[in-house]
TrEMBL record:
Start and end residues of each PAS domain: 59-128, 175-215
PAC domain boundaries: 376-427
Gene3D superfamilies referenced in this protein's UniProt entry, alphabetically: 3.30.70.270, EAL domain, PAS domain
Domain EAL, first and last residues per copy: 599-850
Entry-linked InterPro entries: Biofilm_reg_signaling (IPR052155), EAL_dom (IPR001633), EAL_sf (IPR035919), GGDEF_dom (IPR000160), Nucleotide_cyclase (IPR029787), PAC (IPR001610), PAS (IPR000014), PAS-assoc_C (IPR000700)
UniProt source species: Stenotrophomonas pictorum JCM 9942
Protein's UniProt name: PAS domain S-box protein
Domain GGDEF stretches: 457-590
A Pfam family assignment: PAS_8
Amino acid sequence: MSSSGQRVAPEDGGHPAAPADALADLEHALCQPLAAGLKPVLEAARDALLQATAQCQSAQQRYRALFDAFPDPVSILSASGTVLDVNAAGVQAYGRSRQEIVGQPIELLNPDLPEDHLQPVWDTLNRGQTYVIEVTNMRGDGSRFPVEVHSASFQNDGQPCIVAVARDLSRRWQAESRYRLLLESIDKGVMLFDQHFQVISANPAAHRILGLGAEPPTQIPMEGEEWITVDEHGRRLRTEQWPVSRAFRDGHTIPSTIVGLYHRPRGRMIWISITTVPVFSCGRDLPDHVFSMFSDVTELKRDHVLFDRAQALAHIGGWEWDRGQQRLYLTGEAQRILGHTPPPATLEQLLQCLGSDDRLRLQQTLDREVERKRGFELDLQGLRGDGHSVWIRMIGEIEAGDMASSRIAGTLQDITERKHAEETLKTQARTDPLTGIMNRDAALADLKARLGNPSHAQVAVLYIDLDRFKTVNDVLGHNAGDELLIEATRRIANAIGTEGLLARFGGDEFVVICDAREVPEHPQLLAQAITDAFAPLFRLGKDEFAVTTSIGIARAPEDGQSPQELIQNADRAMYECKRRSRNGWQVFTPELAREQRDRLQIERRLRRALERNEFRLVYQPQVDLRGGRIVGAEALIRWRNRQLGELRPDIFISHAETTGDIVRIGDWVLREACRQVREWMDEGLGLVRIAINVSYRQFNGDNLARRLREILDEYRLPGAALELEFTERVLIEDAPATLHTFAELREMGVMLTIDDFGEGYSALNYLRHLPIHGLKLSQLFINGVPGNRSDVAVCEAVCGIARSLGLGLVAEGVESEAQRQFLLELGVPIGQGFLFAPGLSPREFARRLR
């Protein structure tokens, strides 16, 4: 017995305790005095006791076998919670020996139990009920596992005891955890409904999709104050039409169904795809629950609607041709594109909507691609039902896996606007946007086509450039320039009529392509007509301008057999015309080509002339016309090349202006002239003022005043040592900048003169604002005096302007005594020319000074 008076099973798990030893002692004590009379009685008692002991041991063995055979852990507890016994399953489950468990409080196995944990147990047991609880047991290694304990009471030797059966819940918990994890993690809504459409349970995805918040919904969202339900086409659903209602009614699974839910309070539309499964209890023929799983397809539904709208906006429809049944299916947009009522239902009817050529193309393509099992793409033209033309792009392909090629499907797109736009772009691509005539690309294409046709290969090209267009454009602005181009286009077009094809080649350049087969002089006649058309002045606002043309003519095949070569040679002829006289035309000749090649050769060698020290300066004296005293000199550049020999300045200076080399050359002239003046001063000849021509490019380049200051400082010369001569172009190109530069130069003491005044632009308005010192009478006018009255009048006018503005005068190109006398009478004090001396070497000039 334990300390509580209860009988306890032996620790070794054997039979209950036997009284064999006690019986032997009793027999020994009593046998002798009572041996004679009591011996038979004692033998009978001993036999009965041995039989009872054997029966007790047998019962104990059956108890232990049954106790240990139970698969779940079973514990026998005293009323106070001490473990009296534990079966083999318990020993294994708790990971402890029986000796470690028996006699210990139940807290050994359940360490989390509160102090009064047996009170509710005995309360339940005393009512004749079984006590069930889920707790966590602990193994000998400290690990835990969940159990469901069923406890019952029984009497042991008159003492109340508890038998507790613990069922391991680990596997069930794992299954339930996986189930809960699945329901909580999937993006599908899951709900369980009863027959009254009450929501028994709902997973988080259901809350999220329906926007129900954390509180579980109490009823299915079908009808009422909050929800409106519709089918996939937007029709209202009655209660009996809901998938859940149908599952309860029919007892069948309702597969995926699209349902729309509109929540009135939030104004939100939700589209779901719901699958509904009935749940039957045992023995029932109708479901008592319905299990629903649904997905949010709101975006898919929206995408589907947007796709339909996109098809309509993009004018793209779908089509499918069933070759086996000879049926044609067209989507609504495809039917709208074709515009026929009723819409085509067969391929033959579709072909009738197309033009004859495209009808044949589509039929042949279908036959060919069906055989090859490939797709196709065609642009086809047809007529809509209203008679209007329509362009469609038809794309088709064989359905994947269709070995018999029985179905062909694809898209049908309305590309009418695109085709019209392409035609417009083609026209625009060939048209000059300002003048409306052909552009460069169109002209080249036309010329190429003509040269490629032997019967039309004898053509001529007139390359036209507007003289002085840049002046008008710069002075009056681009708008005025555009007006001038439009008027020039009109004049050229009227001049050539239908005898030539006119194109704008870019800027102020035009090209006329004409036939030169029958009348050889036809190109020249057109060129003269164009020249005459530009004789009247151009009126732009209140101003009038004389704008003429320089025209170059080249003809095929003698002047070129490709468009590029022909136009290039016409361009060469045009530049020759502009170089010579302007306002006329020039026919391309081999000699002209040779001259231009020579010019190219000059330009090529000119670029390296400075590095090779091929330039030199000569100095033409400027003398007092009355007494002949040298008062200064003009520095004149000379160039001698090893291959080309001595070249005149009028030949290579124009090339240098064109190529831009004039800036480097002009800088060298300034430096060399200043070096020479310094050398003469060092020789005791005094300060000689040298006149130097400054080109427009040099004037507009880097800061001329700053550069000149550096050179003067380098050779320790005053500004009065130089006289800079500018052309009249400087006067009007950029008046504000010109004023600033002239002021800087004058402040340095440099003399400023306008060279060849009267030859170029009429710029008297600019002349009176510039701080210049003098004018130079051009040799062009001096040549004709005193015999030519026009030249005399010009010279008199220039002298009058100089006197009225207080400017000095120098006459260049004086070659006769008569000219000297005429100039003296006009009041011109200084002149230069062959009458006095040509350009002299520095040594010869110094000798004359002495």
